[in-house]
């Protein structure tokens, strides 16, 4: 979306104007200079691919934050019967008008005007559309979640919503927010920031092309143009300076629109990078009925026997994957020893048995519980007291355990059983017993979904059903435990295949010590049982 320093809309109390804005319109004016038929064709291809259509014949198209007007033009050329473009920035509106004059001067069903995604009355006056398009826009409004609420009402029942939203990178996103605010405050900041980051991105790309990919450095820029018909340089400037700036992980966006009756049709995730996650939703009040009619898989937590089967695969066939976790497991034992001077230790979900063996060698009396019988037999063969059971019904006597550990386990538990599992752990712990564990921190569940062509189900590749942050974990534990530690944590793991990976892990660990976290971190919790 584009915006302006001074417009009539700034006086609208419904539009929350932040103190500083990026001049998106000026950037689009420069983009028009390099616009050609090849870029327009790529924009058309992008719409066809993401919307999974060959044309927009008979459909209406709303372009929210139209910028240069490129995708409004693409929609017209794909046969849309009505196209309406609006943008907050008058210079962006002027760009779209100029683009229409050049490429589609006689299009009477294409209207362009100034408007705001935060203006509910304005959006209501437009009516509803078959396709609502807003790529890289709503995170620049100053109130992203309110804009989600507003644009959802612009989609006709059965229509599609195509949006792209900046990916949440945690502390890195907070750092970028500071950079963007400084950029927008004037030339004193803008020139050095632009010089540094544009040079950095280009030199990094050049080094990668020459030293790693061994390809023509110009190839990446040609490929970038083919992705959506956009300009690499203009998009980089937009990224460095684009403010207001908000982010969201894919799961948050999907959950929001699902609650509004929208079905996720397509997701193009940014992975762990700072780009945009692209979403296509269908406005479908009766999502389950529509899925049944079209044979689209329905994502539900599997029955207990399916959970056991999926967990069993990793416990018995993929045990080598647990070797890289030794640093984390050793750390959890040390955390236990700081709270309790040995005693009985329960580990739920033993993996390959490393934690059990390490704890026993340090003087702990260890019990291991797992739902998979083959895994239990393997752990028992190591001389460990291993028992078959599930977290919501532990085969352990009440108040018999001094320390309970659940590391990378709770995310596998059916949401409906999770509270029962935490209550059961409280039952087996002695008075003031300690509960220690980890879960993936703010895991992007959508990115790790896979589809089975045999059972017609969509499921997480590792059987995860939960994504945790500090708030959710605190709420889960509070009824039964008193929290002593709850924080993001990166564990140093040396038991990885190569020195390159070890050095990378060491670098991530060093950054974590000063509060800079990348992807694949854990949420560590240490809690004591509440007194009755």
What does this structure look like?
This protein is α/β, with parallel strands linked by helices and 532 residues long. It folds into two domains: 8-168 and 245-294, Vaccinia Virus protein VP39 (Rossmann fold, 3-Layer(aba) Sandwich), CATH 3.40.50; 304-529, Rossmann fold (3-Layer(aba) Sandwich), CATH 3.40.50. Helices cover 42% and strands 20% of the residues. The chain has helices at residues 24-32, 37-51, 70-77, 90-103, 120-126, 144-152, 171-183, 187-213, 218-228, 232-241, 250-259, 287-294, 304-316, 326-339, 354-361, 373-380, 415-428, 470-477, 499-513, and strands at residues 60-64, 82-87, 110-114, 129-135, 155-166, 262-268, 276-283, 344-348, 365-370, 385-388, 401-407, 429-440, 449-452, 457-460, 481-489, 522-529. α8 (187-213) crosses α10 (232-241). It starts with 23 loop residues before the first helix and ends with a strand. Residues 1-19 and 286-304 have low confidence and may be disordered.
Give descriptors for this structure.
7-stranded mixed sheet; 532 residues; 19 helices; 2 domains; Rossmann fold; disordered N terminus; alpha/beta; elongated
Task: Summarize the SSE layout with pairings.
Elements: H1 24-32, H2 37-51, E1 60-64, H3 70-77, E2 82-87, H4 90-103, E3 110-114, H5 120-126, E4 129-135, H6 144-152, E5 155-166, H7 171-183, H8 187-213, H9 218-228, H10 232-241, H11 250-259, E6 262-268, E7 276-283, H12 287-294, H13 304-316, H14 326-339, E8 344-348, H15 354-361, E9 365-370, H16 373-380, E10 385-388, E11 401-407, H17 415-428, E12 429-440, E13 449-452, E14 457-460, H18 470-477, E15 481-489, H19 499-513, E16 522-529
Parallel strand pairs: 1-2, 1-4, 2-3, 4-5, 8-9, 8-11, 9-10, 11-12
Antiparallel strand pairs: 5-7, 6-7, 12-16, 13-14, 15-16
Helix pairs in contact: 1-4, 2-3, 2-9, 8-10, 14-15
């Amino acid at each position: 979306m584009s915006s302006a320093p001074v417009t009539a809309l700034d006086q609208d109390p419904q539009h929350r104007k932040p103190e500083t804005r990026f001049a998106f319109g000026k950037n689009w004016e420069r983009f028009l200079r390099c616009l050609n038929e090849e870029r327009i064709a790529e924009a058309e291809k992008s719409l066809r691919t993401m919307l999974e259509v060959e044309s927009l014949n008979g459909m209406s198209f709303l372009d929210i934050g139209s910028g240069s007007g490129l995708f409004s033009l693409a929609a017209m050329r794909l046969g849309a019967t009505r196209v309406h473009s609006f943008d907050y920035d008058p210079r962006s509106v002027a760009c779209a008008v100029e683009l229409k004059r050049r490429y589609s001067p006689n299009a009477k069903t294409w209207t362009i005007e100034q408007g705001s995604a935060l203006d509910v009355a304005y959006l209501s006056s437009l009516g509803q559309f078959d396709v609502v398009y807003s790529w890289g826009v709503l995170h620049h409004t100053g109130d992203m979640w309110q804009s989600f609420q507003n644009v959802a009402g612009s989609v006709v029942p059965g229509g599609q919503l195509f949006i792209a939203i900046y990916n949440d990178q945690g502390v890195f996103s907070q750092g970028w927010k500071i950079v963007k605010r400084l950029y927008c405050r004037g030339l004193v900041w803008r020139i050095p920031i632009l010089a540094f980051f544009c040079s950095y991105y280009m030199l990094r790309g050049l080094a990668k092309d020459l030293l790693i990919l061994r390809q023509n450095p110009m190839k990446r820029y040609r490929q970038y143009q083919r992705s959506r018909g956009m300009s690499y340089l203009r998009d980089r400037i937009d990224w460095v300076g684009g403010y207001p700036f908000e982010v969201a992980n894919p799961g948050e966006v999907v959950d929001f629109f699902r609650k509004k009756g929208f079905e996720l049709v397509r997701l193009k995730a940014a992975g762990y990078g700072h780009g945009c996650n692209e979403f296509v939703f269908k406005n479908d009040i009766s999502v389950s009925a529509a899925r049944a009619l079209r044979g689209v898989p329905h994502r539900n937590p599997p029955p207990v026997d399916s959970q056991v089967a999926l967990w069993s695969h990793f416990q018995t066939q993929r045990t080598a994957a647990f070797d890289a976790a030794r640093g984390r497991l050793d750390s959890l034992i040390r955390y236990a020893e700081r709270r309790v001077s040995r005693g009985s230790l329960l580990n739920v979900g033993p993996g390959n048995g490393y934690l059990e063996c390490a704890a026993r060698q340090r003087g702990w009396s260890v019990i291991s519980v797992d739902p998979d019988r083959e895994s239990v037999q393997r752990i028992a063969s190591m001389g460990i007291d291993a028992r078959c059971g599930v977290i919501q019904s532990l085969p352990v006597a009440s108040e018999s355990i001094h320390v309970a550990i659940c590391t990378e386990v709770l995310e596998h538990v059916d949401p409906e059983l999770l509270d029962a599992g935490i209550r059961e752990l409280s039952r087996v712990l002695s008075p003031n017993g300690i509960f220690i564990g980890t879960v993936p921190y703010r895991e992007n569940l959508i990115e790790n979904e896979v589809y089975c062509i045999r059972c017609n189900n969509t499921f997480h590749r590792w059987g995860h059903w939960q994504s945790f942050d500090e708030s959710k974990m605190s709420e889960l534990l509070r009824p039964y435990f008193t929290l002593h530690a709850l924080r993001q944590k990166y564990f140093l793991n040396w038991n990885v295949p190569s020195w390159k990976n070890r050095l990378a892990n060491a670098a991530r660990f060093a950054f974590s010590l000063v509060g800079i976290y990348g992807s694949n971190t854990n949420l560590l919790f240490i809690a004591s049982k509440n007194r009755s």
